[in-house]
Amino acid sequence: MSSAPGINEAVAVYYDTTIDLYERLWGEHVHHGFWDPGESPAADGADRHAAADRLVRELVDFAGVPRDAHVLDVGCGIGGPAIALARDYGATVEGVTLSEAQAGRAAERAAEHGVGERTRFRTVDFLVSAYPDASFDAVWAMESVMHIADRPAFFAEAFRVLKPGGVLAVASWCVRDGELTAAQEDLHQQVLRHQVMPPLQSIEAHERMAADAGFAQVRGTDWTAAVANSWDPTFAQVAMQGGRQFIRELARDRGVEVLGFFYAGPVMLEAFATGAMTYGAIRAIRPAQA
């Protein structure tokens, strides 16, 4: 039960080469923000960093992640959610990522925030991480499941490592349920190329995979409208000097993989606007044993 090696290597290279760019743009959280309906992040709504903090809180509340939990953070990025879980909810967190650069930076940042003793970060494929059965109170996966080719295996492994009564909390990029139009499928394919992902699936498909893995109390919700502002063109761009010349130099120095970072914004904005892509949260419980 392992991920596709080609995808894993490509994801690791992508995040290793863009780690500083993401931190400059997204801050400590390498994921979307969450806004109330009608809010504009540039005017009456939270800025990106506050909105990204809120997304963590929304997933904690939606999934019912308990305080003082032992949490496995799958796809931990540079440690933003893990630090928040440890600092604000008393959690002890194990973070795993395919990117060695991310794991190192996450450990640095956790120490800076005073939660180094309650967090640990490893460079490992979650599907072959070999954690013992029933090890965790919660499995947390914020915008990482979309990089996993064998998603049924993800849900099966999450079920295995959770204690009876443990909670699964997922937030992921998705596509709408049903067949996409030709134009929507073209946008979908552009997202996959730029963001190094296998084909995306619907929120409903994620719910079915969780149920098939044995989870109970499975529930999904659509947060597309709440997160779409993350790609606002006046809000989601990196302040860079040098323009196109700078981007060309980055591609020459780091490889063409880095270009996906710059192309993603307009594509994501259009994909959300046309309904091709959605953003979902899924919560599920490993049933308690009799």
Keywords:
290 residues, alpha/beta, Rossmann fold, seven-stranded mixed beta sheet, 10 helices, 7 strands, 18% strand
The percentage helix is 40-55%
Q: Please name the fourth-level CATH homologous superfamily.
A: Vaccinia Virus protein VP39
Please state the structural category.
Answer: alpha/beta
User: H/E series, N to C?
Assistant: HHEHEHEEHEHHEHHHE
Q: How many β-strand runs?
A: 7
Secondary structure blueprint with pairings:
Blueprint: H1 5-26, H2 48-63, E1 70-74, H3 80-89, E2 92-97, H4 100-112, E3 119-123, E4 136-142, H5 151-161, E5 162-175, H6 182-195, H7 203-212, E6 216-222, H8 224-227, H9 243-254, H10 259-273, E7 277-285
Parallel strand pairs: 1-2, 1-4, 2-3, 4-5
Antiparallel strand pairs: 5-7, 6-7
Helix pairs in contact: 5-7, 6-10
Descriptive notes:
The protein is of the alpha/beta class and 290 residues long. The protein has one domain: Vaccinia Virus protein VP39 (Rossmann fold). 44% of the residues lie in helices and 18% in strands. The protein contains 10 helices and 7 strands. It has helices at residues 5-26, 48-63, 80-89, 100-112, 151-161, 182-195, 203-212, 224-227, 243-254, 259-273, and strands spanning 70-74, 92-97, 119-123, 136-142, 162-175, 216-222, 277-285. A 7-stranded mixed β-sheet has the order 3-2-1-4-5-7-6, sandwiched between helices. Mean pLDDT is 87; it is low at 238-242.
